[in-house]
Specification:
heterodimer; A: alpha+beta; six-stranded antiparallel beta sheet; four-stranded antiparallel beta sheet; 6 helices; 36% helix; B: alpha+beta; five-stranded antiparallel beta sheet; three-stranded antiparallel beta sheet; 10 strands; CapZ_alpha (chain A); CapZ_alpha/beta_2 (chain A)
Amino acid sequence: MSDEEETQPTDEQKIEIAKWFLLNAPAGEIQYIAKDMKAVLQDETLYITAAAEAFPLYNKSHMICLDFPDRSGEVMVTSFSEIGENEYLDPRTAQVAIVDHVNQVCRRARPANDEELPTPYIEEYRYALDIEVTKYVSEVYPKGICSVHCVNGKDVEEPGMDFELVVVISATRLSPQNFCNGSWRSIWNVEFKDEAQLVEVRGTLQVGAHYFEEGNVQLDAKHECKDSTMFTVKLELEYLSPEDSAHSVTTIICHQETEYLNSLQTSYSKLPDATFKDLRRKLPVTRTLFPWHNTSQFSLRKDIQKSLGLEKKK
Amino acid sequence: MEAAMGLMRRIPPKHSEAALTALLSLLPHHSADLLSQVDQPLQVLCDVDSGKQFILCEYNRDADSYRSPWSNKYHPPLDDGLYPSQELRKLEVDANDVFMVYLDQSINRYYEGGTSSVYIWEHEDEGFIACFLIKKDGSRTADGRRGYLEEGSWEAIHVIEVVPLEEATARYCLTSSVMLSLTTNDESSGNFNLSGSIRRQMNMDLPVAAGHLCNMGRMIEEMESKLRYSLDQVYFGKTKEMVCTLRPPSEPVQTRLLELISKRRP
C-alpha cells in the first residue's frame, strides 16, 4: 500500500469521522474521546464543528443529567425534554435549562411558560407517575435518575382524548480509575388510549459496560418490550385515577426490568458454559500439555494424525 | 499516536475495523505503527496450490499481496516480494506443521476446528520474529457445534521476538492478543453482544538446546491458558459485575417491592 497515493480526506470527511468517534463513545467517556480526537485531528476548527453536531446527539442518547446553576434541581437532557434549541424542560421544577452541550453543563435556567407545560389535567397523571417511578428508581437503582414527560396531548384538558407519557430512567456507574464504566437506560412509552379504554406500555432497555485495562471489552445489550398485549392495562379510563394508573404502570415497568435483568444473568451463566466451550474448552481431554519437544520428529506428527484419524481438510 | 491508541481502547469493539480505517486516513504517516499495534479481526485466503486456508496479517503482507505459509507464494502474485531466509523458511514450515497439529489435536483439546498460520521474519542481528495466528468461528452455521451463539469468533495473535543471547540461550518476548466476540439474540433477552480484545506480555530467557519451536510452543500454550482465565474474569466477570452494580439483583427485595406496589392500590 503506497500511502503517498492515498488522498487526504476532505474537511467534510474529517468532520464526519470526528463525529462518528464522539457519537460512539461509551457512557461517560465522551470527554476522553474528545481529547484524543482533538489530538488526532490537529485542527481546532474542524473539531469544533464536529463537536457542535455530535455532543447534542450523544447527550440526548445517553440522557445525561445536569444540575441547575442554582442547585434547585436537575434536568435530564433527552429528546423528550427538548423544547427548543439547547433548551430542556424539567417538569418537576417547571424550569427550562439552557444547556452547553459540548461542555455538558447547564448555563442558566428560566421558568417555563404556560405553553411549554402540560395542562393541569395531564399534569396530574404526569405527576402521579413521576412520584411512583421516582420511588421505584430510588429503591432499585443505587445511582438512578428518572423523569416523566408528556410527549403527546399535553394540551388535553379533560377525559375523552388520547395522550402519551414517557418515562426515562438512567443509571450510570463511572469508575475510570478501575478502568470500568457502565450504564443502564430505559425508556417507557405510556399511551392512554381513550377509545380503546386502555393504557399501553412499551419499553426499550439498553445496558452497556466497558472494561479497558490492558484491552477493550464491551457489553452492548438491548431489548425492546413491544408486546403490548402483555402490558396493556384495560381499565375504565373514566374511573382510572392518576394514582391508579401510576401504580399499574410502575408495576409493569418494575416487572419487566426485573425480568430483563434476570435474563441477562441467565445469559451470563449460560455463556461461559455453552459459548466459551463452543470456542474453546478449558482442559484438553487427554489432560496433558502438548508434546512440543517431540514435534521435531515428523514421523511422530504423522503418526499422531493417523491415530486420531485426522486429515488435513484445509 | 497515543491519542489514536486511546481512541481504539474506547470505541466499541464491533466498530474497530471502521475505526482503524478512519484513523489510517487521518494519520497516514503512522500507518505502520497503527497496523502493527491495533488488533483487527483476522481474514483468511485460500492457498491456490494446496487448497488450504491461511491467515492474513502484517507479517505476511507485502504491498497488497499476502504470502501463504504453505506454498510460500504471494497471493495475488508479486514480482519482487520479500521472503524469509532459507533457514527461517525451514523453521517456518516446521512451525506451521506443528502448530496445525496443536490445533488439530485440539479437536478434543482447546479448539474445535479453526485455521492457523505461522510467519517468521528476520529481525535485528541474528534474531527473528515469529507470529502465530489462530482463527476460529463458533457461530451456529460455522465450526461451532453447540449453536447457541448467533455469532461468535475467537482469534489469537501471538508475536514472539527472539533474540539470541550468550551461552546458548535466547530471549523470547511474547505479546499475545485474543479477540473474542459473542452475540446472542432471543426473545427474552433481546440482543446481547459481548466483544473485545485483551493483550498480555510474557518474557523468558530459555536455552536453545530444546529448539526454538519447542520454547515458543510452550510459551504460547502457557500464555493461552492465562489468557483464557483473564477472558473469563473480564468478559464474564467484570462486565456482569458492572450490570449488577447498576441494578443490584435482589430477589427478596424485588418481590417485596412488587407486593408493596400492588398492595397500595385502593
